[in-house]
Here is the input.
Amino acid sequence: MRRLLWMVAGLLLILATLWMILFVTKGRFLRGPFERIAGSQLHRQVRVRGDFQLYFDPFALKLVVDGLTIANPNYATKPFLFSARRIEARAAPFSLLRKKWSFHSLDLTGAAIDLEWDKAHRRNSWSFSDKKNGRPLTLPVIDEARLTETTLRYRDPRLRLLTDLRFETIRSEGARIGSAIRFAGNGTIRATPFMVSGALLSPNRTVQRGRNRLILHATAAGNVVDMRGTLPSLAELEDVPLQLSARGHNLARLLEIIGVVVPDTRGYALASRLVLHEDQYRFTGMQGRFGDSDLAGAFTVHNIEPRVRVEAALTTRRLDIVDAAPFIGYNPDVIAAKGAAGAVTRVKGTPRLLPDAQLRIEALRAFDAKLRWHVDAVRSRNVPLSDIDLTLSLDDRLLKMNPLTFTMARGRVTSDVTIDARARPARTTYDIRLLPTPVGQLLAGFGAIEAGTTGTVKGRAKLVGIGDSVRDSLATAQGRIAFIVPGGTFWMRNVQLVELDLGVFVQRMLQNELKKPVSINCGLIAFTVQDGIATADPILIDTSKNVIAGRGSLSFRNEKIDIGIRADAKKFSLFSGQSPVGIGGYFAAPTIRPLSPQLFGRVGIGLGLAALAPPAALLAFVDPGDAKSISCGPVLAGARSGAQRTVKGAKGR
Here is the structure.
């Protein structure tokens, strides 16, 4: 018993001596052992660059450190994971030797935390292992704390994200912090600067290494983004569902931040659920609007090398025609302000309609895409579009819209458009097909009356052009455009007006037979396109009463129209104009010239004959009715002018 008592007394004496030595010396001689022990536990270099004190005060360890640093791994861009200008703490005895540190109090001044991922996104600076994800930093339990001038830096090379945050002074008592830990800062994402502010709304769980309710507000490139969610740990964002909302003046500016290029839009507001999984941003349950159009669906952005890849499935119930303008190269703000007139520009005094917005070739290098987009209807006064389906793919500057289908005036159009921007300038292939459509329905979509019209029409435009805009590619286009009318009936009024057969027109009007249908045997309206000039090849319509033929051209270079249409009767007719109807002007301002120079010439001849013998004046307006019926085989085959024939085999018009 005496030996035991002497042993206990000796131990107490040793402890008292150690306590006295530590109290007197403040434990400054322990700086080296502290650095080695802490470094061995963290597998990082730990250094104290200023004063170091470690002693019992009286029964708790008191730690005072000036200039503490904990090194970052060598792949990080900053030397230190953690640094602090001054630390004053009272810790539970021997907790510094355990993995779970426990502090009665902590006063931290000028702390800077640097959290970084390596380029491969396999290791991070706050995980103390070479294995993927490693062993995360374990936060200590703190009864009372005061953190002043604390900053945090987060860097993710894969996301091209860098942010620097400043925290408000944090105070806690009884292991509890106030209502929130608030922060603000700035940064860049994919070279776009942003400002950010937010808060951890459950700071007490944060201190206890629990879940963190996060709210965040950011502004970047004219966009405002709000995000909220619950993080499983302080720096864990992966596989965490976050509620995201964004608004701004232009959706294109928002998507540019993550490396995706789309045409400019009007103001937008969208909300979705965001999950970051490995190299992916997953946006699901998206709902919102851009301009006066709605938008819903989901999309995923893959942050992979060498290009970002986007996959999207979107739906729109109502697409306003103004919001559709950017997709074909028009400025939506100008269209919204001026209406259809906003699509027209003037070049050397002449109106131009074709859009000349340039492809952003360099931007297309940055990402690939797969998109499916369905639009129920387009809201427009003059362009009756509905049921649009777009399948789009982009692979290293090769853009394909294959197919793009829509209903226009109740006629179904399907098209394949390929833009190969790998070539310089870009090479565009157009293949646009109008499926067989009742002409009555097609005209009814533009306000005409359907009754009495039973014919159908089908067509195809197949062109190849070179240029970085729609205007440039069509101005150099080669190919063919053809519309075929297999047969049917039309109102006589429409045919007689084209023919300008004044005698028959007046006769039918007086007999109240204006709506009597005229049979169309076949018809072809076709153009051969060379170097942007579309030449009629041919315009030919054969009816039961006449043959309508046209000549002329359309220019995609200057958008000029110069076409003449003439109808010759198959039967004798009095008071027939027998002269072309001219269609001229420009795409943006077409004109119709029913009184052509030929007709005025006939009037002159008639006046001359009238001077000799008044009844002879009628001879200038007599149509002998010698037009020959056209063979419908070449017409229905869409053949060129040289292949057209009459029913008797003679060369056609």
In short: Residues 477-653 form one domain. The radius of gyration is 40 Å. Residues 2-25 form the longest helix (24 residues). Confidence is low (pLDDT under 50) at residues 206-210, 492-514, 602-625.
